[in-house]
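Quick sanity check, 26S proteasome regulatory subunit-like protein:
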Amino acid sequence: MPGKTPDKEPVENRGYRTDKDAKAKGKKTAKKEGEDEMTVVVPPSKTPKQNSVTPPANDTEGDVAMGDIDEAAQEGKVDPVAQTINDIKNNFALLDRAVAHFDARFSLRALRSISSIRKRLTPDVLGQVIAETYNPTSSRAVVAKQMLAAIGRPDVVLGRQAGSDMDIDSEAKPSSKNGLVKKDPLPEVDVFLGILTQVLLHDTKQWQSGYEFSQSLAERVRALNRRTLDSLAAKVYFYFELFAEQIPPLPPSPQSPILLVRPPLLRALRTAVLRKDIDTQASVIVLLLRNYLLTSHISQADLLVSHTQFPENAANNQVARFLYYLGCVRAIQLRYTEAHEHLTAATRKAPSSACALGFSLSATKLLVVVELLMGDIPDRAIFRQPAMEAALRPYLLLVQAVRVGDVDNFEAINNKHEATFKRDGTYTLILRLRQNVIKTGIRMMSLSYSRISLRDICVRLHLKSEESAEYIVAKAIRDGVIEATIDREHGYMKSKEVGDVYATREPAEAFHDRIRACLALHDESVKAMRFPMNPHRLELKNAQEAREREREMAKEIQEGDLDEDDLGGDFDGM
């Protein structure tokens, strides 16, 4: 072609060095310096700082310096402190939306984020958030200083501006005199930061400081009458109770600080009922039941349940806790049937996640003991769950001893695992099982033998005399445990013939109970669904305004005030 220079490469390839040339260049340099051969292949950088205007730094031979690669990799990493601060401040926007839309779902989203934030929460991070949120000349500065003093950072200066490297939405507005003046945060933000302070003190095991701070925070929350604080106030009272339980002397000592928590909790319950605060009401009722059970005040717990009504629309977790504690109260009161119903519902409502394994395990242990006290044998599938198998091993041995009716084996297992049963809080209930073991043994013998002497019963059950065996058999017949008669002249027990159980009403009653439980679960699930408050009113308002405009337009058309030009086009009629 005319005008083409054969010795020169095309314009689009000028200054471009291929990988092959780079490798050859690197090999030549390595041989020149007397070192081992090394090939460095650097892909084109994607960082915004290295563009066509500012090329990457090269060494004397044209290779890319390795230090620049390390710096670029370090710049790509996210600072964990800045990320934690950003995550905390992002929840402020959720709280603002909760107040603006009067929707508690945004507050619940902010509370759910605490579980991920608490792993990275430190006093320095929380102190920096508080310093960047509050204005030193504001009336809320007292609240900020109280939180800083609680986490051990009283020297932090308020009004600190966020760094330019953090992408955080600032709530500041320009002013001609002071530059940037921050607006006072909402009370919801105050309480949310107070909850983070409680979490930090709880994780660092500062029980006394956490108790004092929670006491002041609970009083401040109770003084605020804002419905958007309901879910946050429930969490405040929750940690208030936890701090009181860890301060010595520990419960069930009569000098335990948990006795001092009851009056504030009762006042909070009364206020929540008057304000129709469902979240706080459910949380405080559960905390009071827990408080009474820790000090063995069963009568006061029963009075609380009888004089209060647990809210129907409470959260599922609070309902599960309430049913568990109510089952504990009913089991101690010898009302095993009610306790069995409450504990069964609690295990069904318990969350299936791994974080709720402790609650499910406690409820299952108590449910097993209650079933044994009722004279039933729990299903073996309960003890085969992988997550609970090791913890339920002592209770499996206990069930086997009760099922066989071996009194000696039952007492041996009880003595061996006494510490475990006491730690679980089921030891006093297990002591009641000795009579059930004897009744179970008698029932097994009545099913195995049509006639058995009282002497053999005494030997098999390891009783002291035949008279005690006769009394126990007579009581079992009266309680309906067995269907038999006692022949005192010949000294034996004669069992009656067992009919077909399917010819009775027992299968139909069991089927009816299951259907009733499923229907109750469906009704509770429907009631627990959350929707925006009064969204239909806006739709009705818009529809009503549209109808009024149509009426006015039709009236004006009839009167002749409007023509086609006013309507903006052709008008055929209505």
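Posting the structure with no commentary besides this: Residues 1-42 form one domain.
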